[in-house]
Amino acid sequence: MKRRTLLGQVLAASGAPAILRAQQSNRVVIDPSRIKAQLDRRLFGSFLEHLGRAIYQGIYEPGSPQADSSGFRKDVLDEIKTMGVPIIRYPGGNFVSGYNWLDGVGPREKRPRVHERAWNSIETNQFGVNEFLTWCRLAATEPLLAVNLGWGTPEMAAALVEYCNFERGTKWSDLRREHGFMQPHNVRYWCLGNEMDGPWQIGHMTAREYGRKAVDAARQMRAVDRSLQLIACGSSSPGMPTFLEWDREVLEESYPQVDAISLHRYYSNAPGGETKGDSRKYLAMNLDMEQQIDQVAAVCDYVQKRLRSSKRLWLSFDEWNVWYRARSGDGKRHEAPQLLEEIYNLEDALLAGGLLNTLMRRADRVRIACLAQLVNVIAPLMTDARSVVRQTIYYPYAWALAHCRGQVLDVGVEAASEDGIANIDAAVTFDPAKREYAVLVLNRHLSRDQEVRVVFRESTPAKAAEFLTLTGNDLKAANTFDKPKNVLPQKLELPLTSDNMVLKLPRQSYSMLRLPVA
Length: 518
Description:
By secondary structure, the protein is of the alpha/beta class. It is 26% helix and 23% strand.
C-alpha cells in the first residue's frame, strides 16, 4: 500500500496537477525546542583493520617519500586531521578473532611474521597497538579497541587493558613501559569481539556461549579499569538467520556487564541483490538502517524490562558502508594484498549521505558509528605511491564531520512519494556554540529537481552561509587517480532566508545548507 502524507491527500482531493503536488508536498518543519538528542560526535567515527592496504600502504608506509620518521603517511594523516574523525575502531573486524596483540608490541625486529587466517594474508606485525595509539594522538582521534574473543581468552583481553591503561607496577603495565611508553594510553571504549554469530568468524560460537565469554571478559577487564565502556557483539547483519534472536540471547547473558551492543550492515546495488540494480530503491536503503536500529533497540529494551534493570543500553553501529563490488583479491597470500578496494560512484555517495541522515535521526540511541573503513579498503580515501584521492563518499562524510554538532533536532518532514519511496530525506542539527543550523537533504528523485519548503517555528536564520550539493548526470561517475575531481561538490545559489524559505534541489543530489542565527 502506498503511503501519502496528509498534505498530499489534501492536494490530491483539490485536483491539483501531479507536478504541483510533487513540488508543494516537500516540507521540512524546524522547531529548535524539539531536541531529539545531544549529538555524540563519535557518531561520525571510522574503522581501520589489518586488512589489505588499510594499515600498510594506507596509514603506515616506512620508506615512502610521503612518510614521516615513524613511518606514518603524512598526506593521509593530514587528510584525517582535516576531516576531524572523532573515533577509530581497531584492529578488526574479522582480523581480531585470530590476532595475538603481543605479536605487535615490543622491538619490531623481534615481532613474528604470521599467516593471517581471516584474510589469508601475511601479517608482519610491524604496526601494532602502540603504533596505532601513537598515530591516534597525531590524528587527534580517539581509539575504539577490539579484543579477541574468537580464539582469544578473557584473560588476554584483561591483560591488554592492563597493558594500555594501568600506570605501573604490574606485569603488563611494566611491559608497556619497557616498550618505551611510560604513560598509560587510557583507552576508554572497547569492543568485546567481532561478529561472533558468523560462521566465517574464527572461534564462531552460539549466542549463549559468546554471552558467557563476554561476561567473563567484561568482569576481568573492569577489574583492571572501572571506567571502561564495553560494547557487546551484536548480530552481524539483518540477513543472518539468527538476527535479533542472537542479540536477545547475548543480552540475556551479559546485559548487566555491558554498556552497548554493536550493529553492522553493508549496502549493495548489485543487479542480483535486494534492489535489483534499481538506483531509486538503492537510495532508500537508509530506511533499512533505520529499521535495523529500531529493531535492535527494541530487543535491548525488552531485555532491560525482563531483567528489571535501570540501565538503558546505547548502540554502536560500528561497521556501515556501501560494499558489493570488490569482494576478493588475487588469491595470493602476501603482505598488504589489494583487497576490497571498492571504487565508489555518485549514487554510493548519495546513499552514504542518506545513511548519515539516519544515524543522526537516531542519535538518541546510537552513540558510536564507524564508517568502514577509512583508507583503501572500502574507504573514502585511496592511496597510491604518490598521493591520496578523495572518493565520492568522502564528501557527505566530511560535511557531517565539519558542520553537524550540538543538537539533533526532531524535524517534521513531509515528502512527495512515488512507488512508496519518499523523494526527500532530511536531517537537521543545531550548534548552540556557533548558533548555526546544518540542514542535510537527500533528493532521491532521479529525473526531477525538487523544491523543499523549510519552515522555522522560531529562531529564524538571518542569512544562508553556504549551500553545497553533490550531484551529476551520471550516477556511475567515480573519482580515480586519473580523474580525482570527476565528482565534486557544487555551490548552489543561496536561498532567501525567512521563516518559510524555499530550497531548490537538483535531481539525484545530496545537499548541505548552513544557516547561522543572529
